[in-house]
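The methods section describes the discrete structure representation at length, but only in general terms. Each protein is reduced to its one-letter sequence and a matching series of backbone shape codes. I believe one specimen quoted in the main text would settle the matter. An entry of this sort, consisting of the sequence and the corresponding backbone structure tokens, reads as follows.
***
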Amino acid sequence: MSAGLEWDEDTLPTSDLRNDFTRLEMSLDPVGLVLGRPLIAEPGELFWYNSGLSHVLSALLAEVSGQSTLEFAREHLFAPLGIETVRWKQDARGIYKGGTQLYLTPRDLAKIGALCLNDGLWRGRRIVSSEWLAESARTRIHGRPDYFAGRGYAYHWWTLDEYGVYYASGSQGQTLYVFPDHELVVVFTATIREGNIFPEALMREYILPAILPNECNCVEFGSAPYFSVAWPSNVR
């Protein structure tokens, strides 16, 4: 997310054909579209969310492994975890979409979180190296004051270092949280429209106060106690 390419999928709605995510979805050559964008910053200098870069990674994985991204994931991740119900959409050239449209059940998404929580072990079997998991969740770059402030980004994990959590956040509220220090995995699946409550609000106001009462602040809300966790208000 810091390649320095000109890209904007946040400012305009996806109904606007100038939105780069929309252009990516409509393109007959999505990888070419991404790699053809001009460089406007030094790589590693500026955070700017770019689903196209995730798609390029999917294409690279397929090229290097000789398998499609789905085949690779089935062999090395899904099958070992007993994940069978998977849907993943492809682009116009048959490349699985690296940045969107992977569908898993809540239970199967929680299995991935449990794998991370257990340092890459699943029922005593090593699936992923603990070293790689630690590196993948380490913050590499932070959001700017005017753009995803308070959040960090690792290897496709969002991070909130102050709270010891890393998480995957998908479209319309699909979220997987991993709290290593508290041995906690939380999964949300939803179709959230504008104006509805977001998973982070549920985490902040209900789940964390229930399991971490000593780390929450109790304030009065009407006549009943109302719990509020010190969680960045701009996290959505």
Q: What stands out?
A: Residues 1-103 form one domain.
